[in-house]
Each structure stands twice: as structure tokens, then as C-alpha cells.
Inverse folding.
């Protein structure tokens, strides 16, 4: 194990820094099925930070109206009351939900998860 591998292993405890799953030994039969008894090692991505945003709505304003805002001003949004909020991960829609209060904090109860096909179409 190299010095960089040791540093990574110390930064992410519990990770196996052994041979990657996609390495085929030179004497192995490439047409043979992969070992099903070893689960895919997803530990590499489990600690990647993601930006999660819950969007209540949007609006457009001119500068004059923006500067006129004060305490108690109401900004009208493009969504109707009771309409689901959008849950975005890294600016990509992944779910919709409704606002809830849990221990005096706002939260979102997911009511609709975007299908994998819809998520793929967002990437195009």
C-alpha cells in the first residue's frame, strides 16, 4: 500500500484499500462471471458531500421592487399553497414533498421520488 493509500485509509476509516473489484488477474478467464458473493464497494462514494435544496417556489422581480422590500413584505411565489415542494440534489430534481415541522424545525416529507429514467433525462 502506498503512502497515498495509507492517508486515504486513515481519512476514511473502515474502508478496504485492497485490490479494486474491476481488476482481473492475468490468468483469469475474462468470460467467467464475476464473483456474486462480494458486494460492490460503494464506500468510496458514501462520504461525498452533496448540496441538497428544498425549493418552495420562485419569482422574478425588478430592482425597484427588490429595493422596496422591508420587514413584513410578502413575496408572491409561482407555486400555489399546498403544491409540493421540489427537492434538488446538486441542482437536479430528485423528489417532491410536503412541508412538515419536526421538533420545531422545518422538514420535508417525500411524496414522490423521480424515476431513474426521468433523472437520466435531466442529465442531457
Amino acid at each position: 500500500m502506498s503512502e497515498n493509500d495509507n492517508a486515504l485509509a486513515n481519512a476514511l476509516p473502515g474502508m478496504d484499500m485492497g485490490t479494486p473489484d474491476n481488476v482481473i488477474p492475468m490468468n483469469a478467464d475474462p468470460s467467467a462471471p464475476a464473483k456474486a458473493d462480494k458486494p460492490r464497494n460503494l464506500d468510496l462514494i458514501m462520504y461525498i458531500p452533496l448540496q441538497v435544496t428544498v425549493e418552495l417556489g420562485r419569482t422574478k422581480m425588478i430592482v425597484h421592487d427588490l429595493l422596496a422590500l422591508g420587514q413584513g413584505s410578502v413575496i408572491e411565489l409561482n407555486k400555489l399553497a399546498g403544491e409540493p415542494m421540489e427537492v434538488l440534489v446538486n441542482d437536479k430534481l430528485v423528489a417532491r414533498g410536503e412541508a412538515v415541522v419536526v421538533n420545531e424545525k422545518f422538514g420535508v416529507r417525500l411524496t414522490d421520488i423521480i424515476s431513474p429514467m426521468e433523472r437520466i433525462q435531466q442529465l442531457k
User: Anything to note?
Assistant: The domain at 3-123 is CATH 2.30.330.10 (Surface presentation of antigens (SPOA)). Confidence is low (pLDDT under 50) at residues 1-19. The first strand starts at residue 52 and ends at 55. The beta strands are 52-55, 85-89, 92-102, 105-113.
